[in-house]
Amino acid sequence: MLSTVDSCPTARRISREFCGNREAVDAVGNMIESGRIPHAFIIEGADGSGKSTFARIIARGAMCSCREPLLGECEHCRKVRENIHPDLMLVTGSGKINAISIESVRAMRKDAMIAPNEADKRVFVLEDCDNMLPAAQNAFLKIFEEAPPHVVFIMTCRSAMNLLTTIRSRGRIITLNPVDISEGAEYIANELHMADPESASAACLRSGGNIGEALRLLGSENASQAAEKADEVTRGILEAMCSGSELELAVKCAAIGKDRALGGMVCGLLCEYLRRAMMVSIGAQDTLESPGQEVMRLGAELPAETVIEQIDRINELSEMLRINISMPLFNTRLAIILQRRK
Ligand SMILES: [Zn+2]
Predict the structure, then answer these.
(1) What's the 216 CA to ligand 1 centre distance in angstroms?
(2) Which of 9, 97, 174, 336 could anchor a disulfide with 131, C-beta 3.0 to 4.6 Å?
(3) Whether CATH 3.30.930.10 fits 9-177
């Protein structure tokens, strides 16, 4: 790890919430601490490198009224963090190429003339400017030239080379790079309150030190694990339905435990499988493969009206997850809905 001995106190505070990128952190920390914040920044870096997060740190730095910069105790710090600051304007792209349009630039031009509401500065964050057409960039250049002193512009892009030279030469370019694997893993484990930093480390390694990508990997890993679990529980319930044993059905439904999200997913899957069983029941072919057997059997054994009623009642029960039904009650009710009626 690089030494932070030479960093100013503001940079040290930034490094507590932004991983790695010592050079960028030090540069911005010094600007904020000295109160000399340029009126235009260009933050470049790969998707997931933290451009939006860093833009918000600069925005906070421009508005902050804490005893010392970025202590996090003032209203501006709080409102920027909660994304509700009236002087932080987000400009995003639209259309097929997701580019900031000339219309958006014109609207921003009017907006920039208005004095700040609460802070001393009004900060415009222009996200993902790589695809911004030259006409829109030229219109933006005009705002640059006539911008009142209360305005700070922060553009984010994959590479500053995608912007016109005229724009590039007017902004302070900040480059965000991948982070050191162990530092990144520590940051992620901390952010996600992970008991097991091993998987944070693996995700960080796989993403090549890209925090956003590592978080995405961890998220999709969790999501696919959850989907697998839901499928396993649902298949258990379907088998129990086929067996006709009420006790087994109760046991399989109880496998949902206290996991509310799992309960919702199981309800969704059950409805889907029962709908297929109903198709079988009315003589339509079930063209989908899994879980073929149980669905075929249920379809053969249950009248369509019963299945329709079960689907309705499962949907109602699923709604109750949102109004905080207790999970043991939820699991019991699900078993009762699915019991075979003679
Ligand atoms: Zn503050």
Answers:
(1) 30
(2) 97
(3) no
